[in-house]
Amino acid sequence: MLQIGLTGGIGAGKSYVSMILERMGYPVFYSDAVAKQLYATNNALKDQLVELVGTELYINGIFQTDVLSKQLFSSPDLKQRLTALVHPLVRAEFESWVLQQNNALVFNEAAILFETGNYKRFDATLLVVAPKEQRIERILKRDASTREHILERMSNQWSDDQKRPLANFVIENDGRPLLLQIEMMLAAINKSF
Questions:
Q1: pLDDT tens profile 80-103
Q2: Interaxial angle between packed helices 76-99 and 65-74, expressed in degrees from 0 to 180 and rounded to the nearest 10
Q3: What residues pair up with 124 in beta bridges, in sequence order?
Q4: DSSP conformational letter for 114
Q5: Residue whose C-alpha is closest to residue 53's, from 24, 7, 85
């Protein structure tokens, strides 16, 4: 079974591409959603996160995403320590999920695939990119966020130029036909592996 890492910056459209792949019959594992689920349900992780971030991270037992986001943006050290705690758990969930799949090709959507070095664990990687202004407009429409906050979040991610050399395949989500690009990527994967 081939495992493909799928990533892209905020607002690039990686979730939309993932949805298309699912509709085509390919299983997609959503790493960020699984991480959020682990924040809420894994008691050992909860204890470690409270020790790392503080008791304000859980109010009445409910994980406070905004508290973590604010602290992460101000502390690169915290980001590394959080990654060291959460990513092995997410990876274990992915490996368990893979065993339940019966498709020859599965995808793992993850926001920081290249930044963490986890891209090396996959048979190939797919990067979804889009122009910065399009990404900002998409995020403004979907989130209750400000342009300044979006730019701050973008500045904490690698640029597309940093990611492109590491990607096996790139989907340009700038108005070009996505389905055609996805079909070409799938044909190339089937031919190469």
A1: 899 899 999 999 999 999 999 999
A2: 130
A3: 4
A4: T
A5: 85
Please check whether residue 187 is in contact with residue 144, taking contact to mean a CB–CB distance below 8 angstroms.
Answer: no
Which candidate, 3, 6, 1, places its Cα nearest to that of 170? 6
**What are the sequence ranges of the domains in the chain?**
1-27+104-188, 33-100
Instruction: Please state, as a whole number, how many other Cβ atoms lie within 10 Å of the Cβ of residue 17.
Output: 24
For residue 138, CA distances in Å to 4, 76, 89 come to 25, 26, 30
Helix (H, G, I), strand (E, B) or coil at 130: coil
Tell me which H or E stretch contains 30.
Answer: strand 28-30
Whether pTM > 0.85 for this model: the answer is yes
How crowded is residue 123: how many other Cβ atoms within 10 Å of its Cβ?
A: 15
Distance CA 35, CA 87 (A): 8
Phi-psi sector, 148: left (phi>0), alpha (psi -120 to 50), beta: alpha
Q: What sections of the chain are H helices per DSSP? A: 14-23, 31-41, 43-53, 65-74, 76-99, 132-142, 147-155, 160-163, 178-192
Domain 1-27+104-188, CATH: 3.40.50.300
Residues constituting the chain: 193
What architecture (CATH level 2) is domain 33-100?
3-Layer(aba) Sandwich (3.40)
Kindly indicate the confidence band of residue 149, based on its pLDDT and cuts at 50, 70 and 90: confident
